Amino acid sequence: MSAQSMGGGGNKQVIRPPQRGIFPLDHFAQCKKPMEMYLQCLEEHKDVHHECRDLSREYLKCRMDNGLMSQENLDKMGFSNDTRVKGAREYDRSKEKEGFVAGKHISKPAKWWWQR
Fold first, then answer.
1. Alpha carbon of 105 to those of 45, 92, 113, 116: distances in Å?
2. Contact by Cβ (8 Å): 37, 5
3. Residue 17: its pLDDT value, please?
4. How far apart are CA 84 and CA 57, in angstroms?
5. What pLDDT digit, counting tens, does each position of 60-93 carry?
6. Is 74 helix (H, G, I), strand (E, B) or coil?
7. Sorting pLDDT into bands at 50, 70 and 90, what band is 96?
8. Is residue 31 packed enough to be buried (19+ CB in 10 Å), middle (13-18) or exposed (0-12)?
9. Are 23 and 30 in contact (CB under 8 A)?
C-alpha cells in the first residue's frame, strides 16, 4: 500500500485559527468572580446584555490582564461611551395580545417563480 493511498500524501489541509474569538480556558479560575458577577447580572436582567455592560468590560479586562486573551482596546470592542445603548426597551408583544398573526393578511397563496 502506498503512503498516498493511506492519506499521507497529496492533499494537505491547511487549518488557520480565527483572528479573534479563541482564547484559553480559565483553568485556574483567575477571572471566576467577574464572570459569576456578569452571569448573575444577566440572570437578574433577563439576559438584557447592555444592562451588564460594565461587568462584561471588567470580565474581559481581567482576561487580558491575566494573559487569557490578547490585549485589545476595549473601546474598539464596543465599550466606548458613544456605543452605549440608549433608550432600549423590551418589546411588549402588544400586537400579539390584540390577536395579530404574521402573514394572516395574505389572502391568496403565493406562487414560486417556477409556478408562474
1. 35, 22, 21, 22
2. no
3. 58
4. 12
5. 999 999 988 888 899 998 899 888 888 877 778 8
6. helix
7. confident
8. buried
9. no
Q: What is the pLDDT of residues 14-60, one digit of tens each?
A: 766 556 656 678 889 999 999 999 999 999 999 988 999 999 999 99
- CB count, 10 Å around CB of 38? 21
CA 21 to CA 25: how far, in whole Å? 12
Cα of 46 vs its chain's centroid, Å: 16
Would you state the cell numbers that stand for residue 15, as one nine-digit string?
487549518
For 69, counting Cβ atoms within 10 Å of its Cβ (0-12 exposed, 13-18 middle, 19+ buried), the class is buried
Q: What is the pTM of this model?
A: 0.60
Query: At 64, which amino acid appears?
Result: M
C-alpha pair distances (Å), 42 with each of 26, 48, 83, 91, 110: 20, 6, 19, 17, 42
